[in-house]
Amino acid sequence: MPADGAADRRNDAPxxxxxATSLPTGNGNANGIGQLPTNSNPRxxxxxxxxxxxxxxEDLQSEFTPLLFSSLERYLPPNLLNVPRNxxxxxxxxxxRRYSNEGERSRVQKHREYRQRIMSSYQPxxxxxxxxxxxxxxxxxxxxxxxxxxxxxxxxxxxxMSEPAPxxxxxxxxxxIICEMLVAEVEKFEKWIRKTNFTIMRPNTMNKFGVALGxxxxxxxxxxxxxxxxxxxxxxxxxDVGGYALDSHHGFVIQYGFNRDIELGxxxxxxxxxxxxxxxxQFAGGELYFRGVRCDKHMxxxxxxxxxxxxxxxxxxxxxxxxxxxxxxxxxxxxxRINLLxxxxxxxxxxxxxxxxxxxxxxxxxxxxxxxxxxxxxxxxKVELFxxxxxxxx
Length: 394
Known about the structure:
Layout: E1 25-26, E2 44-45, H1 66-73, H2 85-98, H3 102-119, H4 134-137, H5 140-145, H6 153-159, E3 162-165, E4 168-172, H7 176-196, E5 210-212, H8 219-237, E6 248-257, E7 264-267, E8 273-280, E9 283-285, E10 288-293, E11 308-311, E12 317-322, E13 325-329, E14 332-345, H9 347-352, H10 364-390
Parallel strand pairs: 1-2
Antiparallel strand pairs: 3-4, 4-12, 5-6, 6-14, 7-13, 8-12, 8-14, 9-14, 10-11, 10-13
């Protein structure tokens, strides 16, 4: 099993999150509005301005992906949020250049060119899939859960969620017609691949069959899905792994069945939060089996009885969990199973997680060790007190 998600990561496509050492932070206490700082050490805030609506950077030429600038903009110091877009772009680009090497920037540029070659030739089957409109995509229960005001939204979202196992949540999400259209769109894209002999990058190194949705134009749809919906869910259930600060994503479709991938071994994802939605078609088998959340130190530790769980896919229904939740997929024994996955990431959490800690509170094994440590400390204190009472007074 990959210990850090590396074997489950798409190595030939750029991650939208910052490099592991890349997020400088500041206290954001600068005064004034709309004035660029004069120092030569641009910095970002530790926490994002959630109510800020970032600019779109798609039309600006840069060696970095445009979505990264939109994600980072919420982390700008308050006095920079309302400056002209070009000034913000320049400020963020200086930060990114400081923390990424030339090889990484070259890889990002090559991937952008790769996407442009696809989108200049491939003609979508269903244009409505490329712009997320909630009433077109989601079942009513899912839409209504997010209509509640800020004071009631958490309770409203919790009301549509089931938690069949600790840290694993399921809910009804996509309309059947959207599932069918997404499957048809992917099938058309794959026919285009075969017809043109175009060599594509698969979404990760563990799945031989599947496509990255952003490669043929769906990045904006996925961005809106994460920002407007998954982020709110993650703030409630996954705050301990950066769910409050998701700022990048990788979305793709994978296929299991005859002449496709059959099963998937135990693994973790290169994500903080993973959304997995079954699109269909008719299939048997393919259950997900879970074995607990683990940090790098305890990746190969045995699962506790309460951590063992299996989930059967239902078309249109979603399952969401921490990316570090160990799991695999049973063999799809009949038909074809197609799933949409969205890996959501937080560069803030990745930066903070580098700080040394005795125990990681989201890791099941760390929690067990912490309980044992507390019990041992309590027992040692009891022994010390008992001995003190038994010692004769001098």
